[in-house]
Amino acid sequence: MKRALIITYYWPPAGGPGVQRWLQFVRYFNDFGIEPVVFVPENPHYPLQDASFEALVPETTEILKFPVKEPYRLAGFLSKKKTKQISSGIISNKEQSVLEKTMLYVRGNFFIPDARVGWVKPSVAFLKNYISEHPVETIITSGPPHSLHLIGMELQKAFQLKWIADFRDPWTTIHYHKSLRLTKASEKKHKDLEKKVLNTADAIVVTSPTTKKEFSLLTSKPIHVITNGYVASEEMHPVLDTQFSMAHIGSLLSERNPKVLWKVLSEIASETPSFQNNLEIVLAGTISDEVFESISKFGLKDNCKHLGYVSHDEALKLQHNSQVLLLIEIDSPETRAILPGKIFEYLAAFRPILAVGPKGSDIEGILTETKSGVFYNPSEEKELKKQILQWYEAYLDGTLSVASEGVEAYSRRELTRKMAALIKQV
């Protein structure tokens, strides 16, 4: 067995996609000769929680915890709603209040690379003591928050250990980075830290081909693409929705509002008599006010069902029972690298996937490779409308389905096999 110290911020009872990547690796590591030791904050600020994930942590896994000082807790006294939104990544397109502008400025310029940077020094001291008494062979840091990579850098230097930096999302090219109201000096600090991490780690892991291309311009270190994935389940017994349900699982941020989709659905409803009665838009997760406003504007309010945040188990049922699964990404060059965790669970549901996002998105590559759905840019309105009408006709005939291929390569177990091989190789 090779002992690997995994440093991650998100861990059960955290909810949402951020926690699932390393939870699932840890779950299967022992099968592939890796003994994981997990280091997480003792008192974290999780905007979303899902207690069902706690049952997935293997009983034999050693979990180390150390307190973290959370700036978001202090900011919450000023504005709990805004604090929760910003810490969740929801930054409104509308005119921002003085308070919101101030919070973003402070977040971007006083906490570099992020609001958890205060956890770095005490964590390094704690882990130095631990490693001295309980040696490990490899350190793995997972970001965001990217400040955790600074912990890995210090431990690598102190013990000459192998260090793998795992990027679930990009750093300075992530879509919300420009919204942090950074000064030129702060922007430079972010980029300098990013480059230092990329050139100091022994290996880099990313979740998308585009991120690999971007990082390869900054470092000559080996970069490996290991995507997120899905958990194979034999317990699912799908019962397809009787209505023409189009379900989106997960947060819909303001900038991710698919106005072209609502417009097309509205047009079809006015042109096809039965469509308005059969259509059901299912939204599960945190939804911004702008999205609801758009849905109402296009006359679809009565067709929309908002479930709020649902547990992971409930999300899986929704995915398997829906007629069509919606995958929406911000139409921006900065989001081409994003492969949301839900795309892989969508694949495992074997339902048609309708994705809308930027040209050149890695999402399109996955859907094309697996023949699991279609991808459109918002400019392709006519093609989008034609596709929905085709699927609606198939729904009426009872033949709406998808013939996916090669989905098994994205199972969590297969991806863990790949990650374990990398850990042994580095």
Automatic annotation (TrEMBL):
Residues 242-393 form the Glycosyl transferase family domain. InterPro entries: Glyco_trans_1. The keyword Transferase applies. GO terms for molecular function: glycosyltransferase activity. One of its GO terms (biological process) is lipopolysaccharide biosynthetic process. It comes from the Bacteria. CDD domains: GT4_WbuB-like. SUPFAM superfamilies: UDP-Glycosyltransferase/glycogen phosphorylase. PANTHER family: GLYCOSYLTRANSFERASE WBBK-RELATED. This is Glycosyl transferases group 1. The lineage of its organism: Bacteria, Pseudomonadati, Bacteroidota, Flavobacteriia, Flavobacteriales.
